[in-house]
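User: Structure tokens for this complex, please. No commentary.
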Amino acid sequence: MSEAPLIGPSETDASITATVSHLALRKHAGIGWFAGVVFTFSLVLLLFYGIAYLFIRGVGIWGVNIPVAWGFAITNFVWWIGIGHAGTLISAILLLLHQKWRNSINRFAEAMTIFAVMCAGMMPLLHLGRPWMFYYIFPYPDTMNMWPQFRSPLVWDFFAVSTYLTVSIIFWYIGMIPDLATLRDRAPKGISKYVYGVMAFGWRGDAEHWERYEKTYLVLAGLATPLVVSVHSVVSFDFAVAQLPGWHSTIFPPYFVAGAIFSGFAMVLTIAIPLRAVFGLQALVTERHLENCAKLMLTTGLIVDYGYLNEFFLAWYGNNLYEKFHEFATATGAYWFAFWIVILCNVGVTQLLWFKPMRIKPLPLFIISILVNVGMWTERFVIVVTSLSKDWLPSSWGMFFPTVWDWVIFIGSLGLFTFLYFVFLRLFPIVPMAETRKLVHGESE
Amino acid sequence: MERYRRGELYGIAAEFETVEDLRAAAIRLFDARYRKVHFYTPYPVKGLAGMFRGMNDWVRYLLVSPLIFIGGFVGAATGIAMQEYANLIDFPINIGGRPLNSWPAFIPITFELTILFASFGGVLAFLVLNRLPQFYHPIFNARDFERATQDRYFLCIEVEDPKFDWQKTRALLEATKAVLVEEVPW
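Assistant:
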């Protein structure tokens, strides 16, 4: 079976090097990049403003209260963590599976992971009533002789997310060292050459070093693979270990992991499609890359859809009054619109990916990826809020209405993510040059 | 190890345009029984290093995985020891008669710490075994060497090689398809 090429036919070692390093080393990045930085940085300032006001006034500025004590912050947390998962999937799992097409997209997918996990990690801290006490969750020898509750999923979450961030950064950086050396060798004399030189650790492309590099990289990929599955599983325990109808379910870990990868691939496409158009990377990020991402999005999307079906089936089959009522209230209750947005985006729109033109044409695929992002964020909202708003006793029911500050933090985190991304695009090799050279020479992993 | 002074000869380097030329030259050097040869390539080329690998390099190659394993082991031990110590020894609390040593609940953190420390082991293995960061290396004195991270393929026969002979080695390298042969000083 002949497949579309992974790399443009006219690409050589030199052309890849020139294209990719030019993006980092050119003097002026253009008005578009500058405008993007200004716009996203203004959103970062908005975020800082929101955080400052939050710290002064407390979480009361949000719409959260009892019974809905988890609002946007936890929704954002779960969503952002999930976004990161596709990056690790591309960089680690596809490496282990010898999927060579990952080579040209893994760098910016990994960067996406790191920035997404940063945005995610911020959310639980902001959500604390006393955020300056955040270090209480860390096991350190303190004068109160207290330990964190190691049996609590919230503490597991702290370990999972901080490990995930650390390992993602290690994996990203080790993978980038040879490319930083390329930038060092191409940079004009001056501060940039010096900085890239320090960052490249004196890499010289010794064949012995390459062998140990590849071995380390492979083992790190093997470590990151179970890690990525564990992280969103642990996030789902935050819910599944509680007894609330709609949360207390064994389907949650796989369902969360699939949803994470689903939304992550949507975000990869949301980033990759404008990126290749703006930076002229069509020869490196080809239609086949888009199609493969779309296929994975469809696959994980169907797993997520199965999760929805399973929830409703088990509510009916288990014949638990509260579970049944929960599913009924989700679909027809106060938050019905959110539920139907989820169904429309994650179940409906995803099915378009069965058709090949939808998978390879950038514009439709871009629109689909945006809708999936919206759908997955809304799904996290539905999971967090509807269960809390209606538990067992009708007298304890309550509604959550987001305030302007909920939106400020959410939109601000989007701004932080895109701002970090713009900085990354300007300073780092966004396509792994060494790995794409391997594609040119047809070397196997 | 003897000390080298700046300006002394480190080796003779050759630059190649294609990886095929480099491979052909490597085979000729191997047949001529050279052993202290290093290759510098812009992407990982399979098989080159293995051909000329000395004992020291073998050990360093084989140590990668054990170091990562040790890291993982230390992580697992740290995780389980920390939680057992906190819950059984330092601050045991009887909550409704539930067991103090509820080890299944300790698994997630133990797992995460295993991965975390194993990754640290990986970084350590990568840096220590490759002797990085190492900002000065004589091969950087080779002319054109900045292209070794871009699109050219280099090899360098070191003076330390028992077969090294300034005239003969140079002649041998010039007989290959090298585009540039030159002495590299310390």
